[in-house]
Amino acid sequence: MKKIIFFAVLMLASAGIQPLPAFAAPASSGLKEGVSSLLIPGWGQYQNGEFQTRSGKIKSGTMIAIEIAAIATTAAVGGVAGYPSIWAGIGLFILNHVWSSMDAFMNAGQEPGVALGTQAPQDKVNTF
User: How far apart are CA 97 and CA 63, in angstroms?
Assistant: First the structure.
């Protein structure tokens, strides 16, 4: 058990949780955000800055709610029905992690509103 906890802490620490200053932040490749969201759904969206917009909060809240539902379903079905039925919860769990990871990876390096379709990129706005 100690090895599992140590490995989990090591992975979370190496994912990089310290944001760069805005003036020095290069465009991200998305790998860090994708891996972060693969471990904890919603974390990569937070790193992408999607919590700054209403639709980003709704999307990340949905991911967190699905995660809670998957954990509850796995525990309930696994305790009552057993092996074959437990995949209902585990499948939901896996799909949520993959969805969150792919979303964070694909939206990395974009401005939060642009990634969600709610804002024009600042360099594309006409300032006549």
Answer: 8
31 falls within a domain = no
Report whether 34 contacts 44 (CB < 8 A).
yes
Instruction: Judge whether residue 25 has pLDDT over 70.
Output: no
CA distance 72 to 88: 11
The total of structural domains in the chain comes to: 1
- Is residue 20 within 8 A of residue 3, CB to CB? The reply is no
d(CA 122, CA 128): 14
- The tens digit of pLDDT for each residue in 52-99 reads 888 888 988 899 999 999 999 888 888 888 788 888 888 998 999 999
